[in-house]
Every structure is written in structure tokens, then in C-alpha cells.
Amino acid sequence: MSTVTSADGTTIGFDAYGAGRPLVLVDGATAHRAVNPVNGEVGQLLSDGFRTYAYDRRGRGESTDTAPYTIAREIEDLGALIEDAGRPAILFGWSSGCLLALDAAAAGLPVAGLVLFEPPVVVDDVRPPLPADYVEQLDAFVAEGRRDKAAELFMTAAAGMPAEAVAGMKQSPYWAPLEEIAHTIAYDGRIMGSTMSGDPLPSDRWADVKVPVLVLYGDKTWPALSAGARAVADNLPSATLKAIPGENHSAEAATLAPVLREFADLT
């Protein structure tokens, strides 16, 4: 593992693979290297032409955290990784990590292009919107030491899982690592902002994004996620929308790597 130090002193842990064009993989809510091996696998598959960064977002895995949280701090984390790379990077975002990647590009970081896999925006009535006080509920649960309730709220309100399925998850090995980073779920809630409200996306949030953008979704995914991908692509003049055969809200490294390579060749 390697580290960079972000502007506020937070240590960001990462693994880097290969040499060449920088590619930074940005996880969505709850994911980090210890629970998402796909980023590292992508890095290995692209090691002949890319320097791929698989990193732990602040507060997760082997990265530290510094209060108070702001989205700007996470953008600075990405800036520290890009500075380590030494040249403009392609950012690949998973789920809510898509919006962080977009915000980083809009903030003026040296970003050469964006690939976004299933941004989980909700712009219609295909699924219920997030509760208006979602972030406040998450913060309250964590402050009370009830990380299990924060994780449950994420799984039911954001991920759309039935309560009985979440009850089963709590008996699995997956649950303890989820509770461990439950305080960071509110970070992604802040990044999502109003984009899961069922209303149209804001027209100005990413108006400064001029680089090429590829928005991906699995053709086996839930209707709300394919609709969200289309909405994000429609919101960005430089975006192209592409369906990935056979995938849903996850994807195999062997599927993603050639898509990323092709995008980079055209960027």
C-alpha cells in the first residue's frame, strides 16, 4: 500500500498498478479496497498502459479521516492522487462515486475524462425518493452509537432492499465491515444532495464539465438506475450513454477493462 496526504492532513491509502495514463477508480457508498476487489483487478488488467489507482475514500479501510466532513475535502483527496500521478487523470466512478468524480471535474481538477457506472440518481417515480432528512437521520444514528441503524437506513432507503432481506444480511460476514464505516454513508448522502429526490437534475451543478464523459449502465439493472444513467448523460453535453450487456449494479473487471481502454484511446 502507498499513501498520499490530502490538503487537510488526511492520509489516503491506495494501491497503484502499472504505468502509463493515470486512471483513478472512485468507489461508491460503503465500498473500499478490502470489500471491493474489482478495482484492483481492473488495475491489473490495464497495467500495460495505465497507472491505475485503487484507493480508500476517507474514513474507510486504510485511509484516515478529519472532521468536519465536506465534499470539498474529498475533491482534495482526489487532487492529491492526481498530483501523485503527475498528469491529468481519467476518473472512473461507481454509483455515488460518479457524482464525486463529476464534482471533482467541475471544481477544476486536472481531469482528462470521466467514466460513470450507474450514477444512482432518482429523477422520476420509478422508485421512492430518499427521505428529505436522510442525511440528518444518518448523522443522528452515528452520534448515538447506533451504526447498525445507519446501515439499515442506507440499505432500505438508498439501496432499496426489503427490510427482511436486510435482517438476513445482518447475520452475514458482510455486516460488521458495513457497520465499521457506517459514519461515511452520510458523506455519500451529502454528495448525492437532491439528486435522489425524484426531481430533475440541477442544470448548473456540472455545467463546467467539458471533458468527454461516458455513462454506463448494465442492461440487466433496475429501471431506476438505467433511468438515472440516461438523466445524467442528458445533463452533460459532452456525454455518451452506453449499456453493458449482462451487468446490473456491479460489473466484472474483465468487462470494464476493455471499455475503459477504448474510452482512453478516444480521449
Automatic annotation (TrEMBL):
Matches recorded under Pfam families: Abhydrolase_6
Keyword Transcription: no
Alphabetized InterPro entries for the sequence: AB_hydrolase, AB_hydrolase_1, AB_hydrolase_fold
Protein keywords: Hydrolase
AB hydrolase-1 domain span: 41-250
Molecular function per GO: hydrolase activity
Record-given protein name: Alpha/beta hydrolase
Natural source organism: Kribbella karoonensis
Taxonomic lineage from the root: Bacteria, Bacillati, Actinomycetota, Actinomycetes, Propionibacteriales
